[in-house]
């Protein structure tokens, strides 16, 4: 399982936020559940599917094995997750 966290620190509502991605959506959701990240922090309708995580959550993710990733790796994962999500939606709608 490969989970990645970026180095972003976007300030919002008094917290600094980062992004968490993975090689596939199942791994991403399973890891988020493992470290008790609220499913409401998953953004499927953003430019790419990801979890928003605070800097503190990022630290916990790294303690559990997430890999701090550079922009190139994050973009690579983002593209794969976006394709996977669109395929899941198409299957659910019977459009394949």
What is Rg? Answer: 13 Å
> Main sheet?
6 strands, mixed
The total of beta strands comes to 6
Structural class designation: alpha+beta
Mean pLDDT: 91
Spell the H/E element sequence.
EEEHEEHEH
Binned, the helix content reads 40-55%
For the terminal residues, how far apart are their CA atoms?
28 Å
What fraction of the residues are assigned to beta strands by DSSP? 15-25%
Q: Which regions contain 5 or more consecutive residues with pLDDT less than 50? A: none
What does this structure look like?
The structure is a single chain. The protein contains three helices and six strands; from the N terminus they run βββαββαβα. The chain is an alpha+beta fold and 96 residues long. Strands 1, 2, 3, 4, 5 and 6 form a six-stranded mixed sheet that branches.
Which characteristics define this entry?
six-stranded mixed beta sheet, 24% strand, 96 residues, alpha+beta, 6 strands, 44% helix
Give the SSE layout.
Layout lengths: L2 E3 L4 E3 L2 E8 L2 H10 L7 E2 L6 E5 H9 L3 E2 L2 H23 L3
Parallel strand pairs: 1-6
Antiparallel strand pairs: 1-3, 2-3, 3-5, 4-5
In short:
The chain is α+β, with helices and mostly antiparallel strands. It is built from three helices and six strands; from the N terminus they run E-E-E-H-E-E-H-E-H.
């Amino acid at each position: 399982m490969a989970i990645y966290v970026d180095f972003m620190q976007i300030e919002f509502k008094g917290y600094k936020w980062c992004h968490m991605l993975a090689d596939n959506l199942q791994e991403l959701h399973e890891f988020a559940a493992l470290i008790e990240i609220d499913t409401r922090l998953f953004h499927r309708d953003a430019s790419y599917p990801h979890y928003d995580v605070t800097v503190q959550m990022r630290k916990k993710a790294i303690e559990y094995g997430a890999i701090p990733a550079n922009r190139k790796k994050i973009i690579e994962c983002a593209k794969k997750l976006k394709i996977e999500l669109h395929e899941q939606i198409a299957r659910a709608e019977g459009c394949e």
